[in-house]
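User: My instructor asked us to take a sequence, write out its structure as C-alpha cells, and then describe one feature of it. I'm not sure where to start. Here is the sequence I was given:
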Amino acid sequence: MAGLNAITYVAGYLLKKCLEKHRCDICAKCLVNLELDSSTKLFCYFKAYESSTKPFSGLLVPGADFVDYITHLESTFVNELPKSLNKLGIGKHLMGKLKEFSVPQCSGFPGKYVLKLFVRMRLYYALKFANRDFTQQKGKVGSILRLHTYRK
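Assistant: Let's start with the prediction itself. The C-alpha cells for your sequence are:
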C-alpha cells in the first residue's frame, strides 16, 4: 500500500509537469481526480499544503489510468535497468522499452515528454541511491552500481 501511495504522489508530480507544458482542459478533466476515493491517495492528502481549504491544495492527484501507467513504467524500468547497465545510451535503451501515454480525447498530450521525464528522474534516483549505498560500504568489495534493490 505504501508503494502505491508513493507512486500516486510521483505520478501527480509528472502529471503536473505535463499539464504545465500542455495546458488543456480536456486532459486535466480526464487525468486529474481530486476526490479522496482511494487509500492510494492518502500520502497526497497528508502531504498537501496546510494553507489551502481544497482537499489536496496545490498537489495534482492523478486518476487511476495515469497511476496504472506510471506503475507499469516503474515495473518495466526495474526489470530493464540491470540489463541496460552495459549499454551506451541507457536512457535511449529504456525509452525504447517503454510505451508513451496517450489521452484518447486529446491528440496533443505530450506522451513522449512524460516518458523522457520519467526516465530521467528514475535514472537520477537510481544512481543517487546506488552511490549512497556505495559510500556507506567504505572498504567493502562492491560495485558502484550494485542496484541490489532492482533484482526480483
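For the description part of your assignment, you could build on this observation: Residues 111-136 form the longest helix (26 residues). Try explaining in your own words what that tells you about the chain.
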